[in-house]
Amino acid sequence: MTTTRARKYPRVRFLLAFLLGQTLLDFALLCARFHDTLVLPSSLPAPVAHGVSVTIAWLVGLSGWLRSADSFSGPGLGAKLPLFSDSLVALPIAFCFFFLLLLARRRARTPAAWARTTAFGAAIVHLAVLATVLEVGGSADSAALGMAWQSSGPILRETALALGVSIVAIAAASAWTTTVLRMALVGTAILAGLAVVVPTSERDPMPTKASPPPRATAGTEPDRPPNIVLISIDSLRADRLGCYGNARPVSPTIDRLAATGLRFTDAVATSPWTLPSHMSMLTGLDALEHGVQTELDRLPQGVATVAEVLREHGYQTAGIVSETLVGRTFGFARGFDTFDDTTAVAAMSALDEETAPVVTDLALRQLDGFAAAPFFLFLHYWDVHYDYLAPEPYRTMFDTEYAGTVDARDFIHNESINAHMPARDVEHLLALYDGEIRWVDDHLAQVVARLESSAQTDETVLIITSDHGDEFFEHGGKGHGITLYREVMQVPLIISGAGVANDTVAAPVSLVDIAATIYDLAGVDPSAKPRSSRSLLRWRDLPAGEAVFAARCLSYSPSCRFLRHNDAGSLLLSLWPFESRYFAATDREQRFNLAAAPGPAVQDAFAELVAGLNRQWQTHESLRRERQATTAAMRERLRTLGYDRTD
């Protein structure tokens, strides 16, 4: 009779088993979360209280083991479902799973058969979550899982957990009886494998807008903090400046500032393209943390910008930008009393607009308009960005003898500009690029001269940097936005002015460190700085071997690419197709990939990249990500810039 019922109602009993298993796990989770404050009624008999305490302790231990075993991206399938739901292959996997259940319904005649089939399907889904996130664009967890294949990490624990639970479930099903208790064992085992529990991993708090310090009373007013001018020269790779080794006189103004200030020889951008890299510069967050990775993203309201923090501390703030990707659309205007992006809008339809004169003129007017209080001025110069069509005499300044026909017009889409072109033509392209640098440097000289003539240099600190560089076929590509090689990611970083020491710093630093440096200059409470941002005024305290990170994830591509770099070397990872490269620091041209035969340094780099990206993803998850619709004009701008390329 019992066997007949079991065969007649296998699915009903199995559903009951799942419900009971879910209840047990939920109770275990509840105990784990509140066991420290749980107080048993004093009226309970001692044996009962002891039994309840032992049971709770066992459940706490069980749930703790589950959380420690299922640690990736926070414990539980719930923490992974957003990745799974965003996956391009989630639908086919879900279809396959339900197809399995359909087959089981037609062929299974016993609860044991149902249990085996469902346990197998549960394991597939559990592992599918791990597999699918490998190709989910825009998530740090994708990178962590991809790298864990090569560094024994979370994926090994996850795989062992899923397979182990499946074995337990199938073994229990083989000894099946018709009792609901035995069915609960199988259901609980499968649920444990899926770890359907509420994620409880702690999140690092987001940096919030700092409160202004108490106003000083008469007679105790501290020294006024300096004026701060942050200048970003778009697409400027470090090695084309004179102070970084270029023998041509391309950057006399920048070189002079570097000679009297701090020059960082190993500064790394957080992204190979304009939007996310500038957002890191102005928030102190890595590209994965602030979440502004594509044209569909906007800076979340919970993230404080440098301009917002400085304004709350008494600074006048002004921003002048020359590209829409650094415009108000994405949240860059927040915190600025004055924000001018009219130059960017006017130049949106072309790449041959020279905007440096307009930016410089606006900057000079703004400097004259600041009141006595300290000010923060952000200037963004676009013209070094391709196409390299500086006006004469700059266009021919560094290659007067060229007799060829190649110019940089339509640089990114021009198929005649390719990796197979003659070396002489590539040299000419670099000369055109250098001409653009000199063109911008001469305009920067006007800003510096105005500060000097108004006696503001003794009260002002200048920070000069870039969002990324450009490649000229060193590794087969051109421009930027795709790869994470040195020629794209290494940028200049110079701090010069009032009270700044004169030194050269070789330690790896990142664009995220600019925010903490500015806060340090302004006397902002250190608690306001983001976790990953370090003050570069304290360069002697930078820990040896500490790594910096970069990421590239795009809305139209399933691939993410990541960089982990320290003074030992650089690890580059691509998720789609999966590929890793490791270059020792001594390999300046990044020619010898050591990841093919990984040693301890490579393994350590993988492990550190896993940990670093998970930390960034935790910060990202604590945000309310803001999405926005893109316009036809913005899509065309991205196409013109070549940001619609996937390789």
Structural account:
The protein is an alpha/beta fold and 647 residues long. It folds into 2 domains: 2-194, no CATH class; 227-641, Alkaline Phosphatase, subunit A. 43% of the residues lie in helices and 12% in strands. The chain is built from 20 helices and 19 strands. It has helices at residues 2-8, 10-34, 46-69, 77-86, 90-107, 111-132, 140-148, 154-174, 180-194, 252-260, 274-283, 287-290, 306-312, 342-346, 356-369, 423-453, 486-489, 513-522, 600-621, 632-641; strands at 227-233, 262-264, 267-268, 297-298, 316-320, 338-340, 375-381, 460-465, 471-472, 478-479, 490-491, 493-497, 503-505, 509-510, 548-553, 560-566, 569-575, 578-584, 626-627. An 8-stranded mixed β-sheet has the order 6-5-7-1-8-12-2-13, with helices on both faces. Strand 16 (560-566) and strand 17 form a beta hairpin. The radius of gyration is 29 Å and the shape is globular. Residues 1-10, 25-40, 59-91, 129-159 and 193-222 have low confidence and may be disordered.
Corresponding CATH architecture of the largest domain: 3-Layer(aba) Sandwich
Mean pLDDT: 74
Radius of gyration equals 29 Å
Helix content: 40-55%
- CATH level 1 name of the largest domain: Alpha Beta
Summarize the biggest pleated sheet: 8 strands, mixed
Tally of extended strands?
Answer: 19
Our count of domains comes out at 2
Distinct helical segment count: 20
- Given as residue ranges, the uncertain stretches (5+ residues, pLDDT < 50) are 1-10, 25-40, 59-91, 129-159, 193-222
Beta-strand residue percentage: 5-15%
Secondary-structure-based class equals alpha/beta
CATH H level of the largest domain: which superfamily? Alkaline Phosphatase, subunit A
Q: What is the terminal-to-terminal distance? A: 65 Å
Shape: globular
CATH fold-level assignment of the largest domain: Alkaline Phosphatase, subunit A
Across the major sheet, the strand order is: 6-5-7-1-8-12-2-13
